[in-house]
Amino acid sequence: MRVSWEQVFAWRMRRQFVDPRTDAGAVEIAERLGGVQAQVTSAAETAVAVRQSAGEPGEVVRALGTGELVKTWAMRGTLHALTPGQAAGALSLMASARTWEKPTWQKAFGASPEEVADLVKAVSEILDGAVLTRAELVAALVAEPRFQPMATELRSGWGALLKPLAWQGALCHGPAQGSSVTFTNPASLIPQWPGIPDPDAAASEVIATYLGAYGPGTPQAFDAWLTRGSLRKTTVRRWFSEMGDRLTEVELDDDRTGYILTEHAEELAAAKPARSVRLLGAFDQYVLGPGTNDTALLPGDHRAKVSRTAGWISPLVLVGGRIAGTWETDKDELVVSMFDDAPVPKGVKGELSHIARATGQELSGIRPA
Length: 369
Known about the structure:
Elements: E1 2-3, H1 5-15, H2 26-33, E2 36-37, H3 41-49, H4 59-66, E3 70-73, E4 79-82, H5 84-96, H6 103-109, H7 113-126, E5 131-133, H8 134-142, H9 151-155, H10 163-167, E6 172-173, E7 182-184, H11 186-189, H12 199-214, H13 219-227, H14 233-242, E8 247-252, E9 257-261, H15 265-270, E10 277-280, H16 285-288, H17 303-306, E11 316-319, E12 322-330, E13 333-338, H18 348-359, E14 365-368
Parallel strand pairs: 1-8, 13-14
Antiparallel strand pairs: 2-4, 3-4, 5-7, 6-7, 8-9, 10-11, 11-12, 12-13
């Protein structure tokens, strides 16, 4: 099966509710995308709202409050809002990489595998039925002398020592208390929490979710999205192989190959290249799924404009599904920076009201950077 990248982008936009937009709610959108990045809560809200035909920011926070979505450190060690079932599967695969057992991790964060195991047990007990702020959780831990040497890392907002605990199901984010982050045990927050499954049992559905939004994809691209390449390559290839007839290999017009779910093969083959212009917000899954180093999606000489310092991912301008520029707001104006000094597409005007609605801003005009 051979398809063009233009067909792929048209298909991806449809699958990801980018073009056309949807009447679905935050939970369905997050489920289709395999989660929305929630390092910045407003970015998660924008990712959902900009895909909707109508609706304002706030749905993600409401779904987190009801337990329909759970916020935890998942893909690439970053905070995501996911459905509980998808969270459990992704966490299982994250944990299977055992990154905290690697010497470089131990040297950087000062905890041995045995100490991480002790933290998992202690935090599971402390958070059983409880919701604690970071300060309260750290205070409960360092009350025990064995955890006192870890106090500085435990207090760090980056959460490096807490991520392995999240991957093993010992904690997740709880409801915010003002500006304070809270933590709880997912089994306490989610009545139907399934627990962390065996990675071999979880792999096929996590892969299916990935390919259902970001395919055609390769084992390498999947692992980069999930763990930044931390899983054993032989293990990831085996997971793909074991899916058998559920996957169809696709050849792209630049002679690259990847896999699509067989159930989506006819739809992809029938996709017509899109000419639409769409604007997406910061940290959007549209680029995080395939990765900013995918030159078919994002020209390599413009990557630094999207993947910026300190891990910031710029808001995107899509033309026909390809990333063709970035945007930002300045007071009540939308400021558009097109690649290669291209003119601002006429279609951006039609996006202005959607961006205003999705971000909760009043925007009255557009100007080139």
